[in-house]
Design a protein that fits this description.
alpha/beta; Collagenase (Catalytic Domain); TIM Barrel; 2 domains; four-stranded mixed beta sheet; 16 helices; 12 strands; 17% strand; binds pyridoxine-5'-phosphate
């Protein structure tokens, strides 16, 4: 884990947020391979650490300890940052910002110290350090910290089609998804139209206030529909007639030419493209060569893994694929099989910008209502 965030603070802290922030910060600083340790403490513990290590026996907002001598390392342990939650809370209140924001600013400050900057060395050094902090904050603000959550409403249409009726309407479900605070809606228009229909995609395109992701196969028919409807993004998936749901990732490595052409045709229509791939290096590398904007990493093997060892192995495979994709300049989404038990761990992976979750949310919505089901999943993804 490049960024490890631990809390010794006797109260709730935004751990997930800081974990993702630390990962993104390392990447923004060009140190994606480096390791960073972050510890959250209260006033008393900060005063003790500040006194023991720096001869200043009082509390402060942040202290950092660089690892190793000389310039910033490219890999290995960069150092430790200790954040005082009490001090951050006081400063947040005084500055009229939220606690998350102040902790982020302090984390950036601590990491910039680890990179060798020192505002106490003189006025010019202070200016340079501030400029570096501002540049990193701007970059983090632009990219965002937490992952987006997009909800797949296919299975609302599955229930509708069980009776070949008009209800439940996936369009109405999508409105509730948006009202609950999700970042977007996903539908899969299958060749056999077994659940989502063309009308659903068209109406969603017109009424959604957030984003519409259209999952589809890379066929002429689907490319024509997507080029006309122009969703916010298309996710190309493999499609087999008899499968219950999308069973595996696209074999981009085996069909690179065909997929490259599909990506180019969608780009011509102004539609960004994501490729749904298994967490395998060869698939991610092939995706990088097709001109796609994004990969959605298949989390099905992680979700289905039985036992801690297998789960850890599959988790690491997703993390490795996400890093490889980011290194190739691809945006990273993830999805399939994620539920209320296995999503929180995935949500700590700072490279993943968006989750696409369907079955678990619709299944819970049947029992507790769509808004509550979405809000509960949002809490797991956003960590608050
Ligand atoms: N991503 C893709 C590409 C999918 O095909 C699906 C299933 O439709 C999902 C995510 C969502 O998977 P689940 O329904 O298991 O959450």
């Amino acid at each position: 884990m490049p960024a490890e965030v631990r809390s010794e603070y006797p109260g709730a802290v935004p751990l997930r947020y800081l974990e993702r922030a630390a990962g993104r910060l390392l990447r923004a600083a060009g140190l994606a391979e480096a390791e960073l340790s972050v510890l959250l403490v209260a006033d008393a513990a900060m005063a003790e650490l500040n006194g023991r290590w720096l001869g200043r026996p009082w509390t402060t907002n942040v202290i950092s300890f660089a690892q190793g001598e000389g310039g910033a390392p490219g890999a290995g342990l960069l150092g430790d940052v200790v954040l005082c939650v009490d001090a951050a809370r006081r400063e947040a209140e005084a500055g009229g910002v939220g606690l998350h924001r102040r902790l982020l600013e302090l984390l950036v400050h601590g990491v910039v110290h680890l990179l060798g900057e020192d505002h106490e060395a003189g006025a010019a050094e202070a200016r340079r350090m501030e400029a570096r902090e501002r540049a990193l904050m701007d970059r983090l603000d632009k990219e965002g910290i937490m992952a987006d959550l997009c909800i797949n409403v296919d299975h609302v249409a599955t229930v509708r089609e069980a009776r070949l009726a008009a209800e439940p309407d996936p369009v109405q479900a999508a409105v509730l998804v948006e009202l609950a605070g999700a970042d977007g809606v996903v539908v899969h228009l299958r060749e056999d139209r077994r659940h989502i229909k063309d009308r659903d995609v068209r109406v969603l395109r017109q009424i959604l206030k957030t984003r519409l992701t259209l999952e589809m196969a890379a066929t002429d028919e689907m490319i024509a529909i997507a080029s006309e409807i122009r969703p916010d993004i298309v996710t190309l998936v493999p499609e087999k007639r008899r499968e219950l749901t999308t069973e595996g990732g696209l074999d981009v490595a085996a069909h690179e030419g065909h997929i490259r052409e599909a990506v180019a045709r969608l780009h011509d229509a102004g539609v960004p493209v994501s490729l749904f791939v298994d967490p395998e290096a060869a698939q991610v590398e092939a995706a990088g060569r097709t001109g796609a904007d994004c990969v959605e990493i298949h989390t099905g093997r992680y979700a289905e893994a039985r036992g801690a060892e297998a789960r850890d192995r599959e988790f690491e495979a997703v993390v490795a694929a996400a890093r490889a994709a980011r290194d190739l300049g691809l945006r990273v989404h993830a999805g399939h099989g994620l539920d209320y038990r296995n999503t929180a761990r995935m949500a700590s992976v700072s490279e993943i910008e968006e989750f696409s979750i369907g079955h678990a949310v619709v299944a819970r919505a049947v029992l507790v209502g769509m808004e509550r089901a979405v809000r509960e999943m949002l809490a797991l993804v956003k960590g608050c």
